[in-house]
Amino acid sequence: MIWLLFIGGLTFAGPDSALQARFSALMAQAQAQRLEVRPFGEILQAVGLWFQGAPYVAGLLDEAPVETLLTPLDRFDCVLFVESVLALAQTIALGDTRMETFQRRVEALRYRDGRLGGYCTRLHYFTDWIDDNARRGMVRDITQVLGGKLVQRPIAFMSTHRMRYPKLQSDSTWQCLRAVETALSQRKRYVLSKNQVRQISAQLQAGDIVALVAREPTLDVVHVGLVYVGPNGQRGLLHASPQGGVKVSPDLQTYLQNNRSSVGIVVARPIDPRHP
């Protein structure tokens, strides 16, 4: 059971004993492996691999009646997995391994300007997630540098599929989300086609965030994961998959070619908090 703490009308999920135990075990494992002295990308990959086999559960963040900061660490959707791994890696790298510090790092990644302020402050669209976290020095969008081509999309999927999102039944929340979509539609975006990935794969580093660009034109991203660098240097995808939970898909190019709902990728590189 997770207890809920209400602060200023917002809700934070406090750690129960099981969650605290999971977190403490992870920090002990990081210390045993001396992860804090390793390159940041290696920390990200090592942390992500800890969760192999954890189940994929869709819609976790939408279950609570009010927007709640959830960090379960034993089940994930694809974005929750990336956020959790990145926040844990930041925590390990900086040596402040308190549970509350980790949770605040998740909050900083998940919400606009780094603060939970309700449903509309969550960075629902992942390209918006990249932009907001890039602005605050958490990640860097490297898609253009890798040879991505400029595209522009009329982002409107959530507002035009309002019935799929219970919290959008509130007119004020729907209008707030629509304003987010309008702003996002006006931004420049660079995308790497699937056919380009093999050519640039050697430039991808362990822990780089890969976002699969949607074939659906009003949506930006359909899935996200982390670059996995295998023992032979092959690039794969470490991700929370609806098919099998957290796992490694060993060949990124093959995975992308088999994913019919995507047309390419956007790549963001997490910034080492020890060297911002």
UniProtKB/TrEMBL annotation:
InterPro entries noted in UniProt: AmiA-like (IPR010846), Papain-like_cys_pep_sf (IPR038765)
Matching Pfam families: AmiA-like
Protein name per the record: DUF1460 domain-containing protein
Biological source species: Rhodothermus marinus
Taxonomy of the source species: Bacteria, Pseudomonadati, Rhodothermota, Rhodothermia, Rhodothermales
